[in-house]
Design a protein that fits this description.
The complex is a heterodimer of chains A (415) and B (168). Chain A is an alpha/beta fold and 415 residues long. In chain A, 19% of the residues lie in helices and 29% in strands. In chain A, strand 10, helix 4 and strand 11 form a beta-alpha-beta unit. Chain B has 2 domains: 109 residues, Alpha-Beta Plaits, CATH 3.30.70; 57 residues, Alpha-Beta Plaits (2-Layer Sandwich), CATH 3.30.70.20. Helix content of chain B is 29%, strand content 20%. In chain B, the strands form 4 sheets. Chain B has a two-stranded antiparallel sheet. The relative contact order of chain B is 0.22. Classes of the chains: A alpha/beta (415), B alpha+beta (168). The interface between A and B is large, with 38 and 40 residues.
């Protein structure tokens, strides 16, 4: 077995799949690696698609191959190849309902798909988007040409990025959020104050506490949207950003254990031999809460994909899990990082929050005060990675606690 | 010794004079001249940080160019790569200032340039035989050697001390 070259099959050509392919090639110079991607485009940096909407980057600019760590050769990529079912007994995968491919080892890295709330009427109308793929970005860019006003449903990070892409194109944008504040998954409403100010200043119109009832249309597609307060907003584009769900429908009836996503052990292995999963498609765990979670973050997917790449080639590597909440970015000139446990209202976590005119800093400790469990930093995010390390390693913080709170911690303290 | 050279820090020799910080910022200026660099825009930034640990320890902290660089894998725009010499480099043209690298660097040595909206960090001074921080250090607290050569020095030093102690 070891003398033969191994046939690796990776289903999914985005962060987890390509990071795994890269790692497999590093570990095994001779095995054949095939990556199936349902999309027509070659693998690309998915988080960059808002720049395709604005026109600041072309599709070519955001291609994965040859950039960053993605330099391995001998990886066969099949585009427009969608896996529809897996037969774990014969070790084959059915593709586009037309042909089958066999494997020795398989990785399920199909990622996730936008959640489209079924209660909203008319989501299949021309001009309704859920920005997920490069094809979506092209569609949005084209629709933006004839759009004077766009309505975004959902106040998450992806929708904010999409909103700013449209603002940059000169489109008027209204963000409709069901929660009392934007970014409610990433921070508490009281903590989002600085970001809200920045968004308002940037010209984004925000309506909170509202849901969409239905999308109105004429023969050119979207013409407006009906909201839960009975009002109607005329618009030519609607963008839905209501989170993502693991894309694992093709695995039903395969015998592979699913629980929202693909269930894997600490070594990214499925419940059947020679099958692994990583990225948005997989169920992982939060090292702080210990809970099973699925995430939708590029960075997490790469990390888990690399880990799966080691495991699939026989180098047993435990995945350290990831925070259910973790993201960094800059919206409207306001940088922020949020990770770990940040929703503390009504809990007994020990919270140290401080604010200056331009910055907000909230450090969350365990109820006994001995561990750092989460943080929200706005304005000044220096050294965020160090705190991530402290949280993730579950480090006792007694010696460095005052330094953490007063923002004086640096790596010298660990030496 | 074979293998790429690294910047080593000998904490016990650092006096906290911050000469390395100045040398680094000047090296990464357009003029490469201290007096001109002071008024340059974008402001030249140091990529080495001399930190203090109470009561009297000084620690120069800078990018370790990790073998398993979290920043490189976390980057969402493909801006961070490793050169043939093992240096982890941020391509400023590709950086979009999303700060994911800042979020994952456990050493806290990736800076945010607020004027250019790009991240920056030690690039080991391409074009220089010895990085500016190392050549500027007046106490040899910063050393530029291969891992093998540095550990040989440490072993030799320890052996000499042991011999000296025995002779006493």
């Amino acid at each position: 077995m070891q003398m033969d070259s191994v046939k690796y099959l990776i289903i999914g050509g985005s962060a987890a799949g390509m990071a795994a392919a890269q790692t497999i090639r590093q570990q095994d110079a001779y095995g054949s690696i095939a990556v199936l991607s349902a999309e027509a485009d070659m693998p690309y940096f998915r988080p960059m698609i808002p720049y395709v909407v604005t026109g600041k980057k072309s599709a070519k600019d955001i291609m994965l191959s040859g950039n960053g760590p993605y330099v391995a050769t001998g990886i066969q990529i099949l585009t427009s190849a969608r896996a529809d079912s897996v037969n774990a007994d014969s070790k084959t995968v059915s593709i586009n309902n037309t042909w089958r491919m066999s494997y020795d080892k398989v990785l399920f890295a199909t990622g996730s798909s936008p959640y489209i709330p079924p209660e909203i009427q008319g989501t299949d109308t021309n001009g309704v988007f859920a920005l997920r793929t490069l094809a979506d970005a092209r569609g949005m860019a084209a629709r933006a040409e004839i759009t004077d006003h766009a309505v975004m449903l959902g106040g998450g990070l992806l929708n904010l990025k999409a909103a700013f892409a449209l603002l940059a194109r000169g489109v008027k944008v209204t963000l409709v959020v069901y929660s009392p504040e934007v970014l409610s998954q990433l921070m508490e409403p009281e903590d989002a104050g600085l970001i809200r100010i920045a968004l308002d200043r940037a010209g984004l119109k925000i309506k909170t506490g509202l849901a969409a009832e239905g999308i109105l249309s004429d023969k050119k597609g979207v013409s407006g949207i009906a909201l839960s307060d009975g009002s109607e907003l005329p618009c030519k584009m609607v963008c839905i950003g209501k989170g993502v769900r693991p894309s694992t429908a093709f695995l039903s009836n395969s015998g592979i254990e699913l629980d929202r996503g693909v269930v894997v052990d600490r070594h990214t292995a499925c419940n059947i031999p020679d099958a692994f999963s990583a990225g948005d498609a997989a169920v992982t765990f939060d090292p702080v809460t210990g809970q099973r979670i699925t995430t939708g973050l590029w960075t997490n997917a790469v990390e888990m994909g690399r880990c799966a790449g080691y495991n699939i080639t026989g180098k047993r590597t435990a995945y350290a899990g990831t925070f259910g909440i973790m993201n960094a970015t800059q919206v409207a000139d306001e940088p922020f990082v949020s990770m770990g446990i940040v929703h503390t209202k009504g809990t007994d976590y020990e919270v140290h929050a401080s604010a200056s005119g331009a910055t907000y800093r909230k450090m969350v400790f365990s109820p006994d005060g001995n561990r750092l469990v989460g943080m929200t930093l706005i304005g000044d995010i220096a050294g965020a990675g160090m705190y991530r390390y402290v949280i993730r390693e579950n480090m006792p913080v007694k010696e460095i606690k005052s330094l953490i709170i007063s923002k004086k911690l640096h790596y010298g303290h660990f030496m | 010794m074979s293998g790429p050279r690294e910047i080593f820090v000998r904490i016990s020799r650092c006096t906290g004079c911050k000469t390395c910080e100045i040398a680094c910022a000047v090296e990464h200026s357009a003029s490469k001249n201290l007096f001109a660099a002071v008024s340059e825009r974008p402001t030249p930034k140091t990529r080495v940080y001399v930190e203090g640990v109470l009561p009297d320890k000084r620690v120069p902290v800078l990018c370790r160019h990790c073998d398993d660089a979290p920043c490189m894998h976390a980057c969402i725009s493909g801006a961070i790569r490793r050169t043939a010499e093992g240096v982890v480099l941020t391509d400023t043209d590709k950086c979009i200032g999303c700060w994911t690298c800042v979020m994952v660097c456990p050493y806290g040595v990736i800076g945010r340039h607020l004027e250019t909206h790009r991240s920056y960090r030690c690039d080991r001074c391409p074009g220089r035989e010895i990085p500016a921080c190392v050549s500027s250090c007046p106490t040899d607290a910063l050393i530029y050697k291969t891992v093998g050569s540095f550990s040989d020095d440490v072993r030799k030093h320890v052996a000499e001390e042991m011999i000296a102690a025995k002779e006493e």
